[in-house]
Amino acid sequence: MPAAATDAFWMPFTANRDFRKKPRIITGASGHYYTASDGSKLYDTFSGLWTSGAGHCHPKIVEAVQKQVATLDFSMTFQVSNDKAFALAERVTKMAPEGFTQCFFTNSGSESVDTALKIALAYHRARGEGQRTRLIGRERGYHGVNFGGMSVGGIVPNRKAFSANLIPGVDHIRHTMDLAHTAYSRGQPEWGAHLADDLERLAGLHGGENIAAVIVEPVAGSTGILPPPVGYLERLREICDRHGILLIFDEVITAFGRLGKPFAPQRFGVVPDIITTAKGLTNGVIPMGAVLVQDKVFEAFMQGPPLAIELFHGYTYSGHPVAAAAGLAALEAYESEGIFEQSAALEPLFEDMLHSFADHERVIDVRNCGLMGAIELAPRDGAPGARGIEVHKRCFWDEHLVIRNGMDVLQFSPFLNAKADELERAFEGVRRVIDAID
Known about the structure:
The chain is of the alpha/beta class. The protein has 2 domains: 3-54 and 339-436, Aspartate Aminotransferase, domain 1; 63-336, Type I PLP-dependent aspartate aminotransferase-like (Major domain) (Aspartate Aminotransferase, domain 2, 3-Layer(aba) Sandwich), CATH 3.40.640.10. Helix content is 37%, strand content 16%. The protein has helices at residues 16-21, 47-50, 59-69, 83-95, 109-126, 147-152, 156-160, 179-182, 198-206, 232-243, 265-268, 295-301, 321-336, 339-355, 386-398, 420-436, and strands at 26-30, 33-36, 41-44, 100-106, 134-138, 170-173, 211-216, 246-250, 274-277, 289-294, 363-369, 372-377, 401-402, 404-406, 409-412. It has a 7-stranded mixed β-sheet, with helices on both faces. The protein has a 4-stranded mixed β-sheet with strand order 1-2-3-13. The protein is globular, with a radius of gyration of 22 Å.
């Protein structure tokens, strides 16, 4: 691709000047592989961006989208709606943990988070507890890049340029990462459940009666894969119950099979009040997100005059019919092809592949949960992140692999139906690259 052709697109979360020196351009995809602009085939170790668990260009989803866009391309969902949105909401709530009866559609994970926060605030107001306005996030948490999500999020580079304009009334509990106690854990670390007690500290500081909600990722993803310590989520739930605080699980990454189950509560046995989703909802084919709420939350809004709008919130594309058609086809594929079961069966092999790097001289930690894994490299002196981006580039050009790095953390999110031999070859390529760098 000519250099000038890459000038107009201001890429997200990218060092644009560096990228334009030698662009890495994808022109096609099929199954577990991308096609690059030079015609080479690249194995995708990140299944899109945590999105495409069933594989790229899944024929059932492609067919559903093609049919829908030729039948009904758009209809508003303000006072009118479309059949596919209702059908998808019904299917998602039946897949969700017991008690989640309502589904509010958005267009992204960022929008799902802001929607969930607004629902939480409005819920308490509807119940006569309008003083509950404080929101609690977690350090190193990622909840999208809208102002609400950034405010409860705890990734420093995402926040610092906008710190003066983040929403007020937000605090953060400690994150669960401590290499002195958790390094090289397989699955959930045994150490760290006590860190949930930081929420109790904030309840004492601000008054638990003034806190509306706490939001956490069941497994923190974008920050570098931080599995919850054993007992940690249970203690968060207990503290929230004690103080009447809503617990929100941000499952934009973890929902739809990433943990071997439809949703995190079905793996960890801890049920929140609100769940945010996106990504895997449509297998990444069409942008779409959803917020699921327990029946008690929805019913709190259904108390006023029947002609009154219960929640003044929504988006032009909420419940978009083409996105909903993609979602229906994706959920059908997940169920009919046993993809969640395949994900659970693949997890032990994936864990072993990751932890085979544990004794590498440039590796300081390996961690995993479900089909989410990280290999953390020791940073170069004075150049944090340099090793990580070099591995990313060399994997692309030399090994025909697409991996994701966050600074010096190499992140892996394999397809839920990944083939063992392809995954093994991918990690062999990653090892060659790590061996070759200084």
